[in-house]
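FIELD: query
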Amino acid sequence: MANLTQPSISYFSPIPDYENQLLEFETFIGKLSDDNTVLGECRLLWKSVNQFVIRAVRLEKKWIGTKKATGINPIGMIRKDLNHLMYELNLGVSRQVSATEWGASSTESILDILPNELPYLSVTNYRGYLSEIGKLLEELVLRTKHSTIMKILREIKEHRDMTVIGQFSSNEMVKYFKYLAGVKSPLDRQAIGELIRIYGSLCGIYEKDMTLAYYLIKEKENRFGFSYKELRERSIEPRSKREFIDYVGDNIALFKQPYRRALRNADAHTDIETDDQKRIVIVLGGKNRPNEQYSYDEVLKITREMSALVASFRLLVVVLAYNDWKWLHKLLALK
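FIELD: result
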């Protein structure tokens, strides 16, 4: 949305694939929630935000013209125009609230939807994952240009893995999240088998998200020399997949915490042993790999953490928009 590195040139620009990214999340929420009003409110909220941004883009010619004529950013004019636009759109917002304050709180509300529907997320690092995504995007913007973010999001649009999209918003994945919300201790052998299956499915999405995170970190550091599409093609190789996850973990430790390779690759029927009396799971190692042991409750915690991380990456474009609204609100509050 906002151009953070060159505010005198552009404040707003459409986020590529914004609506498609949110449609995936909207589909998921629609299947997850039994309350139709939740989906309706979500849909109305981000359509309102998107419409506001589209209309604001048209005002920029006026602001740029004033900037060229006066040599200064017309902060007061921008603030006045944006507030007037909000009331023109009849969004039902109090006149005591500024347009940018509304934009920041509205995008933040989208980030609150999942914890409201899945209360267990409140005891995971869901907020921490969103925060780390936000910091990564902000650092990338500051060290490169906002156009780099646009380029990356365009590449995601052009080369997005349809299997991943379908997998996250599928009936099966919705069932998994509902299961994670409803499952309670004490767990038994059958519950552990189901959790390991869910964990493996979530890790399949996570591994692709870490490829994206790797790409973003590399862009931030040294302006990566090849495209996200090329990187995704490399990520099919197990060695590259491990390299990407380890590199991301070295830079953002929180992103690696829920990932356990042995547990991710375990087959509940052949690769694990369970003890209902001791309430432990043993993931069997191979010739060069030792066994790994987890308590039943640890398996549940790790699986819930992975679900929180995967869910947070589905909201990357919302985090980007939230960052921009906050920046713009701070800028317009200066005078």
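FIELD: remark
Residues 18-332 form one domain.
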